[in-house]
Amino acid sequence: MRAPLVLLLFTSWAFGQELYRLEKSADAMGATFSVALYGTDRASMEAAADAALAEAQRLDALLSNYRPESQWSTVNRSAAAKPVKVSAELFQLIAACLDYSRESEGAFDITVGPLMKIWGFYKSSGHLAPKSEVDAVLKKVGYRHVHLDAAARTVWFDMPGVELDPGGIGKGYAVDRMVEILKQKGFECALVAGSDSSIYGLGAPPDEPRGWEVSIRDPKNSRRSVARVYLKDMSLSTSGSYENFFRADGRTYSHLMDPRTGYPAQGTVSVSVVAPHTIDSEAWGKPYFVNGLQWTAAHRRADFRVFLCQDAKDTPCAWVE
């Protein structure tokens, strides 16, 4: 579903012409993707925004694990029986996911799908999973069960029941692809977002040379923000336990799963990552969340900034040094 177009006349001038701001959005991947961009030609702005949003919907058809006809679902359904040939795009994306898993010591893992199901997060109806189910499913979880053949461009699982989940990577990849579409159309000033949790600021808006101002919400009080960043050819992704969770026996269990233990991660309530690419900021938010402050401080990439909020009552949210 597409939201109505919003077109505003900006009070500045560029190249002797009036400068417009256009905002448009559409639903894909169970999220709302939005585009805000500046330009001087309304028709070309609308065409570029439509093309970017169409790219998100194309990727939904490719990566959805809810659509049985998608390539992603085909892999999940068939790769344990025989190697499945996939498109070059999907092969490269799965290969990148395996790299994230190796580099994060398994804290990021796209084979987390079976765990998401037994905890009820697959369809957002979270519930406590019995230990016996967790133990049984853990045998099917682990990126080492996924084997790629680059020459044949195939994906194969070495045991039945392995299942890939695109939830930790899809929005970030889509936002990056949407930004590339806008660049190809000649636009150099835009803000692209996937449900406000994966955001990329292209260039800088005309009234703020530092970049696009984005607030990081307080995970314990949604009406407050705890930090703000300016995105100029940079991305911001946030992973928070407040996004999808349930309470049981006095504890909060979120959808942010530690794939090595089979249980939702504890000790962190939100992580925001600023990085040059949205696929990286989204993917790395999970292992930073799961592994916690000390691991993040030791393993943070040099070109990243990480803002972490711990669960401890008297510990403030802070940028990780």
Task: Report a brief summary of the structure.
The protein is of the alpha+beta class and 321 residues long.
Word description of this protein:
- By secondary structure, the chain is α+β, with helices and mostly antiparallel strands.
- The protein has seven helices and 18 strands.
- The strands form five sheets. A nine-stranded antiparallel β-sheet has the order 1-2-3-7-8-11-16-17-18, covered by helices on one side. Strands 4-6-5 form a three-stranded antiparallel β-sheet, with helices on one face.
- Helix 1 (42-63) packs antiparallel against helix 6 (170-184).
- The longest helix is centred in the N-terminal third of the chain and has 22 residues, at 42-63.
- 42% of the residues are buried.
- The mean pLDDT is 92.
**Fraction in helix:** 25-40%
Helix/strand order, N-terminal first: EEEHHEHHHEEHEEEEEEEEEEHEE
Overall morphology = globular
Mean model confidence by pLDDT: 92
CATH topology of the largest domain: T-fold
The value of Rg in angstroms is 20 Å
Q: What is the count of distinct domains? A: 3
Give me the secondary-structure category. alpha+beta
Could you give the topology of this structure?
Elements: E1 6-14, E2 17-28, E3 31-39, H1 42-63, H2 71-78, E4 84-85, H3 88-103, H4 113-118, H5 131-138, E5 146-149, E6 154-157, H6 170-184, E7 190-194, E8 198-202, E9 212-218, E10 221-231, E11 234-240, E12 245-248, E13 251-254, E14 257-258, E15 263-264, E16 268-275, H7 278-299, E17 305-310, E18 318-319
Antiparallel strand pairs: 1-2, 2-3, 3-7, 4-6, 5-6, 7-8, 8-11, 9-10, 11-16, 12-13, 14-15, 16-17, 17-18
Helix pairs in contact: 1-6, 6-7
